[in-house]
Amino acid sequence: MATAQVSLPAVSPKAAPGLAWKAGLPILVWLVLVLYGYVFGSPSGLTMSAWLYFAMFIAVILGLILEPIPAAAIGLIGVTVAATMRYVNANIGTSISWALGGFSDTTVWLIFGAFVFSMGYNKTGLGRRIALVLVRWLGGRTLGLGYAISIADLVISPGTPSNTARSGGTIFPVIRNIPALYQSEPNSPSARKIGSFIMWTAFAATCVTSSMFITSLAPTAAALAIVKTTTKLDVNWIQYAQGFLPVGIVLFLLLPVLVYLIYPPEVKVSKEIPQWAGQELGKLGKVTTKELIMIGLVILALFLWIVGSNTMFGLPYFGTNFINATTVVLVGIVLMIAAGIVTWDDILANKSAWNVLVWFATLVTLAAGLQQVGFVKWFADLASAPLKGMDPVVIMVLLVALFYFIHYFFASLTAHTTAVLPLVLGVGVKLLPAAMVAPFALLCVYSLGLIGILTPYATGPSPVYYGSGYISRADFWKLGLIFGVIFFIGLVVIGVPYLMNVKL
Known about the structure:
Helix content: 55-70%
Strand content: under 5%
């Protein structure tokens, strides 16, 4: 879900009881599971260390869902307990090396770097300018406005891993001014004039773009690290983008039309909107030198992501696979500092970036621990029994569906990823032919952005658009189900045959 900094609110006498039960419930569940293990023994097939690790892991997941303290702190507590108690490895030195292993994961640092990269969009004003330019070009008709909003999100998504910052922090502040041009007011019947259409299109679009790139959704880093640990599949930036391309193109192109038909606006033509966008652009003034530099850096990063880690391309002297995707981001950060777009103090002050670094590094480690203590294999053996004998494609679709729709029970994409992905992958590895494991794993990871559409709490931007007042509670749940099913159908109908027949 949101990757923005999570801070602990001031505790008032009224708030303290709520905070207490949120902190107490994970501890209580942990104690119950630990006592069960010592009284009745660990389940057959699991060592006591594995059971105790599982008890700690469940407490961490509950903590991530309830968030009595910041999520990064919860993850750090988890790895510290596991390392101190030596659940994963009895050797003291190996145990601490395991605990710190997530901090060496390149994908985690890729997301950290992309957070810093996204600062450039905000500091230079480039993100807002892109959105306004597209609105001015395409906003003459309401359907065109829907495409303008979607394209604006797409353009900045490769360098903005927080969909909350991208959609809630860049797109929403621009589009929230549009409904008033037509007296379309929140929390009123006039919301359906144009405001409801705009808000749902923006929200649905960011769910699609969140699945398109490794760097467009922060939990993707943790998911791919889990995939690498479980299946040995190592996916680079361009391979990831290629894998989702057919699904992404179809969903992206159809999305504004589908919203237009399913949740139609009353206003069809919007002549005032391009005029308003032009006025806002006038206030921004001419494109600045720093904006031009930022555009150049974005183009450079995209070029290097595509060319630098793909064996289809080769450059003189460098050859193929000459630069890692994480290295590209580090180069971008250095150039941004050199050009004065961001300062080192800006980076130090970016709490969201440092928070997500600790958060995902610890969660990657904890999820890998499930595999190392043998819990994933044990669970896979147990859960795979009812599915044995089914067609492998049916098994794959059922497991993806389980991973997808179980998100109704989660308020965090990260908690969902950490808790469910290792177990579902374990079952898939157990039952599916080797050739189908990679497509299956990718389908699960690609679903992470799409499932944000399901509920008002499913992903970071959800509360932003739900709280706008333009989409009623009933409409939000209804549309979430409708578009959630549409997205799932697109994922499996297009994604399954494509991923099973293409070599990334």
